[in-house]
Amino acid sequence: MANYQNLLVAIDPNQDDQPALRRAVYIVQRNGGRIKAFLPIYDLSYDMTTLLSPEERKAMRKGVISQRVAWIKQQAHYYLESGIDIEIKVVWHNRFYEAIIQEVISGEHDLLLKMAHQHSLLESIIFTPLDWHLLRKCPCPVWMVKDQIWPEKGSAVVAVNLSNKESYHNELNLKLVRETQELANRIVKEPLIHLVSAYPAAPLNIATDLPDFDPNVYNRALRGQHLVAMKELRQKFCISEEQTHVQEGLPEKVIPEICEEINAGVVVLGILGRTGLSAAFLGNTAEYVIDRLKCDLLAIKPDGFVCPIDVDE
């Protein structure tokens, strides 16, 4: 269920404006719930010095943490004064993504929000290694927020995989659309949700290798298969045909183009969270799409996802 009530905001320590906190407040004002502003910090110099005793190092850490807590309170003072429930927590941890995910798990948070940095020239989003760790490994949905005002009449785009090769895609498609509808109905008046799917064209050299093969017939058949699957999916959620898009091409090209064409505010997609050799050799289709987006992103894991991060004692 997308009734997000326990939001964790990863604070960006390098800037005074916090778009992720602003988006979290926007959601809570319309959907209810509470917010925790969370910041992991670490300075190796405090641990390397031999001139300080362990007690002195601990006291200095506490001093730095207190300064950061005060800084976050200053960033959030307008929200706090207006009655928004925001808890502030700063921890000392040398692996930021682990600290954030451990806080998600221990605090039972159902949505993580973090700012995604924007490229000034192309207006696209740049994802840091920290972002990729969170997208791949965080057990709850991750909302990457672009530092930009929500577009007027901005819509939500759900990227679905209509290939029938793996059955888990069908279950994930249903989860993506269901959660997007539920969230949109709570926070947006008259929400507009679009479904987007891409399918590959026949390889150009296949006609040479197989003379009897007709790529046009193959492409028409594949498009027909995707159109039937899209119709079945949209009818389950009462989404009009005008709000569905099935196009030939690679997902990383088709989906960002559709998002820009319809002025999307957020794209919702499923991410399998592959890590290690699986990610290195197979990659994640979602990640190729993410690299080219120019709007907010909401990444949702499939049911049964197992987080690889353990909570520290």
From TrEMBL:
Residues 4-146, 175-301 form the UspA domain. Pfam families: Usp. The keyword Ubl conjugation does not apply. Required for resistance to DNA-damaging agents. This is Universal stress protein E. The keyword Cytoplasm applies. GO terms for cellular component: cytoplasm. PANTHER family: UNIVERSAL STRESS PROTEIN E (PTHR47892:SF1). It comes from Xenorhabdus budapestensis. Keywords: Cytoplasm.
